[in-house]
Design brief:
The protein is an alpha+beta fold. It is 46% helix and 14% strand. The longest helix is centred in the last third of the chain and has 24 residues.
């Protein structure tokens, strides 16, 4: 059984991150957003679910922003934990933690910053939670637009993302 998305593959995830990157980089320069000026982003395959694949199989793309030498924590692990939470429960991690904490298991992360936009799960870590979530949502929205374009037979967003 093929459990991979037809229109939101690894190439589309890379393009979505590339399109969001200028905004993310500008955001990380703002005082109070990120103590280290870094961010790690994880994008999951929208066609993969905890029923048909492992979490590792669901990861489409990961990208670090900023100098990893400045990390004061394992932001990649935090981003994966947030992505796993949104993926497993099918909702933004903030919403789950604040509105449905009774659903959490002992092993679930208590960090938020992951989103589930129309089944597209993206999570970020390195900034304060509200900005992790904003960056995640930006990437998810770009991936949704790319998938919509691909399904209509166009690929404008991918062409734009390849320009310097």
């Amino acid at each position: 059984m093929n459990t991979h998305s037809r229109f939101a593959d690894a190439q589309a995830a890379r393009a979505a991150v590339a399109l969001a990157l200028p905004s993310i980089e500008k955001t990380l320069q703002c005082a109070g957003v990120s103590a280290c000026g870094v961010l790690h982003v994880v994008v999951l395959d929208p066609a993969s679910t905890w029923v048909n694949s492992s979490f590792e199989e669901a990861v489409l793309y990961e990208h670090s922003v900023g100098d990893r030498q400045r990390w004061d924590a394992d932001y990649a692990a935090f981003a994966r934990d947030k992505a796993r939470l949104s993926w497993r429960y099918g909702m933004d991690s903030r919403r789950l933690l604040l509105q449905q904490p009774h659903r959490l298991s002992q092993d679930d992360s208590l960090l938020w910053g992951g989103v589930c936009l129309d089944g597209i799960v993206v999570a970020a870590s390195g900034a304060i939670p509200a900005w992790d979530e904003a960056c995640s949502l930006l990437v998810a929205a770009h991936l949704r637009a790319i998938a919509l374009e691909r399904s209509a037979g166009t690929q404008l967003a991918e062409v734009l993302s390849e320009k310097p």
